[in-house]
Each structure stands twice: as C-alpha cells, then as structure tokens.
Specification:
By secondary structure, this protein is of the alpha+beta class. The chain folds into two domains: 139 residues, Rossmann fold (3-Layer(aba) Sandwich); 104 residues, Methionyl-tRNA Fmet Formyltransferase, Chain A, domain 2. The protein is 28% helix and 22% strand.
Length: 277
C-alpha cells in the first residue's frame, strides 16, 4: 500500500491527514471541527458528503469538477465526454451542496478534446487546468469577491461511473463511435474484442475517412467486425454504415501491446476473419 500524493505532501509538511473509514463517523467529524478550517476543497472524492461535514468549514466546501456544469454531473465526466465524441470539455469550480454536483458555480474554463485524445490524456490536461482555476477561486473567496452562479438544472446531464462491461466493443456502431470507445475507456477498463477465441485489447485506433479510404483502394462490403485488410501495417475492421476502423495498437490478453504490423506478422491473421465481442 502506498500513500496518495496528497497524503505524502501533507505528511512532508506536517499537515494533519485524516483517513476515516466512514465520513459520517462522529470521531472523524470531531477531528475535522477541531481543525477550524476556513474552507474545504474536494477533488475526485467520488462520494456525496453529508451536511454535517459540509457545514464545518467557515466558508463551506468547494469542488473541482472535470466538466462544464451542468453537463456531465456524476462520477465519470471525463470518460463520458470522450465516449460521446465531444470536441470540448472543461473544469468547473462549484460549491458543494447535498445534491450531487448541483451547487452554484464560481468559475469555468474550457479545453478542446483532440480527436485522438484518451480519457487519460484529458485527465492530465484538466488536472493542470483545474489546479490553476482553483487557486483563483480560493483567492477570491478569501478576498470576499467570489461570485456564485446558480446552475440551470434543466440542462443537466448525468455521467455514471464506468463499468467493466462497457469495455466490450460493438462493431455494429460506426467506426467513429468505436474509436471513441477505444480512447474513452483508457486507462480503464480498456476496449476489447475476441478473435478466434482469444481476447484482445484495442489500445489505439483511428476511423478511416473517405479520403483515406480512397487512397487505400477498394474495400469489400462486410459484416461489422470483419477484418477487411490485413497486410503490412494495415489492420482494418468493418463497422456500421460502411465505415472502417484502423487498429494501430493491439494487445493480446496477458501480453505486451503490439503495433498492427507486429500483430499481423506474428499471428497469421487473415482478411475475412471476424472480431466478436
């Protein structure tokens, strides 16, 4: 077991670190009250805080949430934005209230989602963005100049927790949707499919657009999941509506990640073989 980076920094600077098994435990709440904190800051905690804890800091509690609220309230805002193929996301600093991610907001900053960015990529981007935005809001609260803006609940959407079963690829979707699933489910649970009874993790992909398809040459119409090109570094799989996904990196279960060229050279995969779920 290793301490979180937050705990490590706290211990290094002599800051008390409380790690209760239950956040409603009265002993923990007494310890929290004894700190006489001005402000509580919550990041990626993943649980709804009780009123008894929210009320302790003099200025209340605020949260760094990785979406542009009220869009994507919930546990997995980054992954859901990537899975949906959104071109933009962001960070919101909001006040914590009893209802999940529904408190008034202090500040919002947006960021583009590159077409090939994974959820892990965006998490790193938004962590840096959120840290800077948080400091601005903390300074404003300290100065008494912070402005709270109520959310429009009618525009709220929900971002439920990612589950392992979502990792199974559905080739009946368009290549764009399959690509979004490949990048949206990184670093966990990862997108997977079976081929000849073996499970493979699809690590990196790109949808083939019309211009690229024309350059490749004629590709056969095929049932979704069928490998329509397996030569050189071209591992192309048919998807819905005549679209095609190019697999760039693939990992046999329990083995290292391979490029498409490495995979095709060592596995004898033939055109016409079909990925299943």
């Amino acid at each position: 077991m290793q301490p979180t980076p937050t705990k490590a920094v706290g211990v290094a600077h002599g800051i008390p670190v409380l790690q209760p098994d239950r956040i409603r435990d009265e002993g923990f709440l007494r310890q929290a009250r004894a700190l006489s904190a001005d402000l509580g800051v919550v990041v990626a905690f993943g649980r709804i805080l009780p009123d008894s804890l929210i009320a302790i800091p003099r200025l209340g509690m605020i949260n760094v949430h990785a979406s542009v609220l009220p869009r994507y309230r919930g546990a997995a805002p980054i992954q859901r934005a990537v899975l949906a193929g959104d071109s933009e996301t962001g960070v919101t600093i909001m006040r914590i209230v009893a209802e999940m991610d529904a408190g008034p907001t202090f500040a919002v900053k947006t960021a583009p989602i590159p077409r090939d960015a994974t959820s892990g990529d965006m998490e790193a981007t938004l962590a840096r963005l959120g840290a800077g935005l948080l400091l601005r809001v903390v300074d404003a609260l300290d100065a008494g100049t912070a402005v709270e803006t109520p959310q429009d609940d009618s525009r709220a959407t929900y971002a439920p927790k990612i589950t392992k079963v979502e990792g199974t690829l559905d080739w009946r979707q368009t290549a764009e949707a399959v690509h979004n699933r490949v990048r949206g489910l990184q670093p966990w649970p990862l997108a997977s499919a079976t081929l000849a009874g073996h499970r493979y993790l699809v690590r990196r992909s790109t949808p083939i657009d019309l211009a690229a398809a024309a350059a490749i040459g004629d590709l056969p119409d095929a049932t979704p999941g069928t490998i329509v090109r397996a030569r050189g570094d071209e591992l192309l799989v048919a998807c819905a509506a005549g679209s095609v996904l190019r697999i760039l990196d693939i990992q046999p279960e329990g083995r290292r990640t391979m490029t498409a060229r490495e995979f095709l050279a060592g596995r004898g995969v033939r055109e016409g073989a079909r990925f299943g779920t």
